[in-house]
Amino acid sequence: MDPVLEGRAITRHYHVGGGLFRGAKVVKAVRGVDFAVARGKTLAIVGESGCGKSTLARIITLIDPPTSGTLLIEGKPVEIAGRRPSRDLRSRVQIVFQNPHGSLNPRQKVGNVLMEPLELNTDLPAAERRDRARAMLEKVGLLPEHFDRYPHMFSGGQRQRIAIARALMVNPAILVLDEPVSALDLSVQAQVLNLLADLQKEFGLTYVFISHDLSVVRHIADEVMVMLRGEVVERGTRDAVFADPQHSYTRTLFAATPVTALQAIRARVERKASRRAAAGERRPAL
């Protein structure tokens, strides 16, 4: 299967500092990274702070161009250096950030938050934008009446659902998830991860999942890529990497990361949802 997203020898260098009598220092944030993700699959990028995973996310989401190398989206090379990506291209890749409270405009009602991407990237009439926004609220487990409420009126988990809904409004092929559940309680993490899995199946989404929490990665990733100082030191299927990590840094990372009871929590959440469905109970998600 051809990859939906592919990177070939991606590098990103930054020039920092410098002055009258000394040159700027070159920081090599990403060094010759290769990756490929098929449609409907999840690539998890893991590593400690400063390893280059967030810089790579900015390249994938077309915020920054690579210094060298080639990024391909749906088989087509992407060139954004010195130019703004087209509307169509921007629509193909969207991002969900770690902190939904900071990424949502507190002065905008949720309905307007969801309609804004359609207003910027499509020519749809206002009535259709409203209909799509209301439908997407329900897709992410919220209620139609939430359309006219403000972000501060929701829990952290609900705000993250709103952020996910906003990212999906323009029908992207690729969703970059930058630590999307790390700020949430474990039980809410499980619900949001279940939602992401359901949406991936429904829309055929390709995920790039950035996380330091290996227990979360273990339950959502198809493939895992481990980065250290801007380079990929290990790559493979989830089962292979977790069962038999080959690089010493990967083994150190695994040993230093506490394993949460996420699987048990997810099972409890699913049992509760099944009981509510059987009883015909309809409640907003947490």
TrEMBL record:
It comes from the Bacteria. InterPro entries: AAA+_ATPase (IPR003593), ABC_transp_ATP-bind (IPR050319), ABC_transporter-like_ATP-bd (IPR003439), ABC_transporter-like_CS (IPR017871), P-loop_NTPase (IPR027417). Transmembrane segments: none annotated. One of its GO terms (cellular component) is plasma membrane. GO terms for biological process: transmembrane transport. Gene3D superfamilies: P-loop containing nucleotide triphosphate hydrolases. It is a peripheral membrane protein. Keywords: ATP-binding, Nucleotide-binding, Transport. GO terms for molecular function: ATP binding; ATP hydrolysis activity. Residues 5-254 form the ABC transporter domain. This is Dipeptide ABC transporter ATP-binding protein. The lineage of its organism: Bacteria, Pseudomonadati, Pseudomonadota, Alphaproteobacteria, Rhodobacterales.
